[in-house]
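Hey everyone, long-time lurker, first post.

I ran two proteins through the pipeline my lab uses and got sequence/structure pairs for each. Pasting them in order. The first:
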Amino acid sequence: MTTDPTTATTPAPASKRPLVWLAIVSLAPFVASFVLYFWLEPSGRMNYGTLVSQRILPDVALTQLDGTPLEHRLRGKWSLIVVDSAACAPSCAQKLYATRQARTMQGKERDRVERLWLSPATRRPRQSLGPRIPIS
């Protein structure tokens, strides 16, 4: 029995259809997100918070308790400001705690936020406030 090379069956060329379907399935989410984002904008948006209104401080010479000027610490930083008396009632202590927590939540970017407690009195705050006092 001899085999004739002209009559031998050659394998059929591989179909490219599975490769095309794989490409379509892989690219479909990217194309869909692009179309939805740029052409089919939603009619309304849902925001889960509000931005804090920005206020510019008047030109007042701010000094720390030791008398050194404060401007160099505030340049280029966001400032969380609490305005209260040096006696610091429980509501004041709660505000100071909230500013500390807000700064801590920034993680590695916490140095971009500065806490500031403005008090019109020249008295030192009570020591029982401990680390809540934004003096560093």
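...and the second, right after it:
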Amino acid sequence: MLSPHILVIGSESATLHAVNAVLANNFSRLAEAATEAEGLARVQSEPAPDLVLLEVSSGNGRALHTLQQLRSLRPGLAIVVLSALGNNRRVVDAIRLGAQDYLNMPLQESELQEVNNKLEALRSAIKMAERI
């Protein structure tokens, strides 16, 4: 099975480096965007990512707006938000805006794999339902 194409969008370079360190071992198709605008441009290009990890920990609030734009551009795109521990309000807002799941930072490889497995099962179920 081909590893999913994952796009990490985050304005904190420490977050990008930490996520890359965890993902690089198991996910070969990995891209990063240091700004929301760059992330949106990458999502519009082909091939589009299978999964977006969107950092929502920064205090500027742009990430939630970016989430809405991602939903508008690609309604079926899997989006998982990355949040610092204790940032529950932003996570709840992100889920309400269409994020499928969330991961706490620092990122644990096992948690990411679990989320990826859930998303893959959801994609399979959708494909089966479309055949009926």
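Reply from user beta_strand_b:
Welcome! Quick read of the second one: The longest strand covers residues 78-84. The helical segments are 13-23, 36-44, 62-73, 88-96, 109-131.
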